[in-house]
Specification:
heterodimer; A: 146 residues; alpha+beta; two-stranded antiparallel ribbon; 2 helices; elongated; B: alpha+beta; five-stranded antiparallel beta sheet
Chain lengths: 146, 128
């Protein structure tokens, strides 16, 4: 098995820009998500009972996952805090584009405390749908896992 | 006429099981072993698997969507700290209590598991 060449989140400097992320949440993806989080709200559906709106938390979660996948999370990393702002509803099946960067970084007691800011927009527009700010604590010294 | 303030929000409860955690992992693509590998998680400081933080926040968003519908998606804000793990086998209680009214309605948000606080923070929504 090849070595993981991704940088550790703990080592990424303030100002590091992650590669842009692009994805689409289909009605099937959204339905699976809503079932998984047990969200039965009717607001996501149109008058015909079809899924019409992407759960904004799904857009945020998918973005955070795609961004964090660009770095290694050392064993012992913790999601410490989260800020989210929902700016506009996202029509289902929209192509979404996300950008992210390390906005802040500090060290304390052997841990790097990184704040990753991300923005999710409707692809090809400047219409921002979701803004997020995730605080992750990651050990500076890594234990090898597996 | 008296100005209406932030309405009460119905609390909700959600059971955390390995099945619900696995289902969220499938839906979100996040298979971090702390969530989906009981053997790995037994050796962690948590002593067992825990739910994803974003899964717990989805329950908060669920409560806000139930109260405000799409208005929650047009200016809603969440600002929380993860204070403790949402352990597999636990039941989460999600509460958002009116805290302040004005330009925006503010709620004090808490997700608890028994006596343990899992999430605490605030939610804001534009008023009517």
């Amino acid at each position: 098995m090849g070595a993981d060449s991704r940088p550790s989140l703990a080592q990424l400097p303030r100002g590091h820009r992650f590669s842009p992320v692009s994805f689409r949440l289909s009605a099937g993806d959204a339905r699976r998500y809503l079932e998984a989080v047990q969200d039965g709200n009717s607001a996501y559906f149109d008058d015909e009972g079809d899924l019409a709106w992407t759960p904004p938390m799904a857009a945020a979660a998918f973005t955070l996952k795609a961004v964090m996948d660009q770095a290694r999370l050392p064993s012992g990393s913790l999601h410490a805090a989260q800020e989210l702002e929902f700016r506009r509803p996202i029509p289902i099946d929209s192509q979404l584009a996300a950008s992210a960067a390390v906005a802040q970084r500090s060290e304390m007691r052997g841990m790097a405390i990184s704040v990753v800011e991300f923005e999710v927009s409707l692809s090809g527009t400047d219409e921002v749908a979701v803004i997020g700010r995730s605080t992750v604590m990651a050990p500076l010294e890594e234990e090898s896992v597996g | 006429m008296a100005e209406s303030g932030p309405p009460e929000i119905a609390p909700l409860e959600r059971r955390v099981t390995q099945e619900t955690i696995n289902r969220y992992a499938e839906a979100s693509g996040d298979f971090n072993p702390i969530h989906v590998d009981p053997e790995f998680a037994r050796g962690s400081p948590f002593g067992g698997t825990i739910a994803h933080g974003m899964l717990v926040l989805a329950h908060v968003s669920d409560a806000m969507t139930a109260a405000f519908g799409r208005r929650w998606w047009q200016g809603g804000r969440l600002k929380v700290r993860f204070k403790g793990p949402a352990r597999s086998g636990s039941t989460l209680s999600v509460a958002a209590r009116p805290a302040r009214s004005g330009e925006r309605w503010e709620y004090a948000v808490a997700v608890t598991s028994g006596d343990e606080t899992v999430v605490s923070g605030t939610a804001e929504v534009p008023p009517d």
